[in-house]
Design brief:
The protein is mainly alpha-helical. The protein is 68% helix and 0% strand. The protein has a single domain, classed as Four Helix Bundle (Hemerythrin (Met), subunit A), CATH 1.20.120. The protein is built from five helices and no strands. Helix 1 packs antiparallel against helix 2.
Length: 165
Amino acid sequence: MRRLRAAAGTLLFLLIAPGVVAGAVPWLLTGWQGIGPVWLQAFGWVLLLVGAAVLLDAFARFVIEGSGTPAPAAPTERLVVGGLYRYVRNPMYLAVAAVILGEAAVLGSWLLVGYALLFGATVWSFVHWYEEPALRRQFGAAYEEYCAAVPGWWPRRPPERLRAD
């Protein structure tokens, strides 16, 4: 029952947070009007699809591995360190940025590039000032070890002790 509630909460949060940030706001800014050069559109679609796949995987990890949701109001019971979280601590935010930049490329929209930069500054601030301190309080030494082993924003190969997944 706990996993079912976590899945429902995660799906709801997916629709609300990334759905608004990477869907509704870009639509309000552009009306989905515009078109980039063909090569840029192709790159944009790849970025958009990869970003969406990473986002779905990252959200699923919260249910499968953490028995909770990405929403601060219903956090996980266990620290999520598997899947893409072995390579980078913030794949969810990077995925949303990739989706926005993919939309910018498909539409040829500099406005969306600026929006992606604003999104990046906002989530960096949120992670730095709220999320990381909250995770340190909740998970203590386990989170400290994770931070020491896995970069926040630039993916890299995980150390041996995090490869068990």
